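Deliverable D2.4 — example input (structure tokens):
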């Protein structure tokens, strides 16, 4: 089928995939947070502000673990959110909202 992003110039494939990814996450009702291998927050979807109250500027560059409830940090660190861990965490954690309340969030690798 002509016109598919996997056909033609190899430089357009990543650009099309990136555009579609951003389109999906921009319109998702769930908040999406991308965390780098050393666990600083490197990208957040626009819906994060509506869900948690944080602006992207307030989150970017901060360690993800700083927004996890203190009673759940040990579990998250052991499973892969620690700076020295190479694994990835999956499960539910209480996440800090900008107003100081906690919201249960699913964390996926």
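Example output (designed residues):
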């Amino acid at each position: 089928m002509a016109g598919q992003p996997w056909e033609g110039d190899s430089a357009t494939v990543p650009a099309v995939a990136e555009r579609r990814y951003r389109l999906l996450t921009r319109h998702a009702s769930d908040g999406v947070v991308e965390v780098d291998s050393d666990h600083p927050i490197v990208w957040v979807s626009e819906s994060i502000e509506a869900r948690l109250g944080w602006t992207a500027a307030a989150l970017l560059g901060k360690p993800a673990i700083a927004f996890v409830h203190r009673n759940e940090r040990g579990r998250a660190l052991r499973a892969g959110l620690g700076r020295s861990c190479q694994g990835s965490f999956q499960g539910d954690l209480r996440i800090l909202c900008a107003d100081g309340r906690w919201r249960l969030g699913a964390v996926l690798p």
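The CA atoms of residues 39 and 63 lie 6 Å apart.
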